[in-house]
Amino acid sequence: MNRYSNMPPVVKNLLIINVLAFMAVKLLPIGAQIGEWCTLSLGTPWFHTYQYITYMFLHANLEHLFFNMFALWMFGRTLEYELGSQRFLVYYLACGIGAALVQYGVAWLMGELPLFLVGASGAVMGLLLAFGVMHPNATIMLLIPPIPMKAKWFVIIYAVIELFLGWRGVGQVAHFAHVGGMLWGWALLYYWKKRGEIYY
Questions:
Q1: Could you say which of 41, 49, 181, 199 would form a disulfide bridge with 99 (CB–CB 3.0 to 4.6 Å)?
Q2: Facing residues of 149 across strands?
Q3: Rg, Å, the chain Cα set
């Protein structure tokens, strides 16, 4: 059996934790309080350092959860097998934290505090970047529109779109967090490669 078809432990547990956290917020009597405690609330009296981790496990709605978890499942399985479970978890969390730091920096410069962040998107964008770097010529089948594209071009196009949308201030999406997750992911991969700890 191809090992890449199996579910490695960190990806599996991240999926479970995200789904359980979503259900807890939506269904438990103290769900609203959980959301308040775990949302990354930068520039507010409710901010706590641990929120740099917990915000990654909250999602605004079912669609937000589905697309992030689909991408985690799609790219995370291959990357966890190749990086190893411990390094993969470090990479995932570092991209999520880095994404929040970049979004916070941009918000601070633009005077847009306070800032509230939820979602695994920054960490997931780091996974997308890693897949594109380590498998540049692999074909990704897009969902919308349903067309095939090489991973390297998908990553580049996605990053450019996110930069443009962030610069234009489109919607309530933390576009610079997406870019930040990619940037921190690239830096970490480069660091590990220079140390001879990974090869691609």
A1: 181
A2: 140
A3: 17
Task: Give helix 62-83 / helix 121-134 axis angle, nearest 10°.
Answer: 40
Which amino acid, 70?
F
Which element (helix H / strand E) includes 93? helix 85-109
Give pLDDT tens digits for 130-182: 999 999 999 887 766 778 889 999 899 989 988 888 777 655 688 999 999 99
Beta carbons of 97 and 52 less than 8 angstroms apart = yes
For the chain, list the domains and their CATH numbers: 3-194 (1.20.1540.10)
In terms of Cβ atoms closer than 10 Å to its own Cβ (0-12, 13-18, 19+), residue 192 is middle
**200, 133 in Cβ contact below 8 A?**
yes
What are the DSSP calls for 51-88, one per residue? HHHHGGG--SSHHHHHHHHHHHHHHHHHHHHHH-HHHH
Q: How far is CA 185 from CA 33, 88, 94, 161, in A?
A: 32, 11, 8, 18
Q: pLDDT (tens digit, 9 = 90+) per residue, 6-23?
A: 899 999 999 999 999 999
Inter-CA distances, 93 with 112, 157, 188, Å: 25, 24, 11
